[in-house]
Amino acid sequence: MTINRRGFMTATGALALGSTLGLYPRTAYAEAQKLTGVTYLPPSYEDLAYGSQGFVDLVNEKHGDVATIEFYDSGRLLSADEQLPALRSGTIDFMFHTTSYITRSLPILGITGLPGVVGELYENPDRLKRGSPLFQLVEDELKKNDLTVLSLGGGVMEPEYIWSTKESPIRSLEDIDGKKLRVVSFEATKAIEDFGGAAVRIPSSELYLAMQRGTVDAAVANISTINGRKIQEQTAQVYKLPVTAFGIGIFVQTDRWEALSEEVRNAMMAGVEWFDENSARVANQDYFDAKYWPAFREAGLEVIEPTEAELERFGEVSQNVREAWIGEVGEEVGKKAIDLAMGKDA
């Protein structure tokens, strides 16, 4: 079925209104077996899209008699900023979203991007898998907002490091001072500002020209963004300081999810279990470690590993970022989440 954006929003708006007014019988909800899902990520990001497309294919191919997914990638139906409002209004059934984009709306997801914490989460992905205490805590907090997270991809993606131009190299914490760095998440913004840098929010689609023209001196980015946008052509070195990170989650509206039949939910959960096992793992290992880093090094990229002293200092200075986040989610929840992410008993 072909659907354009205006027609989609009109039709789903009418359906939502009709349901609210009681104009549709309960049996009409059987059509919810045809589920609409979205992501703003394009298929050209093979690494990040691997999990979402694999989820959709598994459900459609193995459980198509129970649930059929109409999937819109690349922001073809909804932009990144429109996804969450559309989910809450019921105009879509589920969404894939990177956590870094929605931590302002859903602060508990900030645990996936906290400086001084993300390195531990990356090295220990089981701490964020479905069923783990940390995942359960995140799920419980999101349900207070009438949202349910089905998976966070089985872990965070490799942390976002600092990729700088030849003209304005960043090889140490001191080099951040006075530089303009592209960032996305709130957590990264605070961390960069604490070291004297100027944080500039620039979408990945505009990053290549921004670095080429000197609009920014460096980018805080995941290696997927660097490879997908060919940013390595504008960088001479990468300082592998784990500034922040993100996960890719599958989100549903809680009451809409619970209203689905058990058969449909089971079909979706088969895809969820696959996604949780493969999304972050395949991106981090099969793409980043096995393909991208070797190719970048061979092309001459200088890779600077931070010293233990630099990592310790970064963690200390970034403590205020963590404290600010705890203030947003509540002291009990925030401290428990950080302890669980760091492998401590909470």
Automatic annotation (TrEMBL):
Which Gene3D superfamilies does the UniProt entry name for this protein?
Bacterial extracellular solute-binding protein, family 7
Q: Which GO terms describe its biological process?
A: transmembrane transport
Show the InterPro entries listed in the entry.
DctP_fam, TAT_signal, TRAP_DctP_sf
Q: Which UniProt keywords apply?
A: Signal, Transport
UniProt xrefs under Pfam families: DctP (PF03480)
Residue spans making up a coiled coil are: none
Question: What family does this belong to?
Answer: Belongs to the bacterial solute-binding protein 7 family.
- NCBIfam families referenced in this protein's UniProt entry, alphabetically: TRAP_S1
Name-wise, this protein is TRAP transporter substrate-binding protein DctP
Organism equals Aurantimonas marianensis
Name of encoding gene: dctP
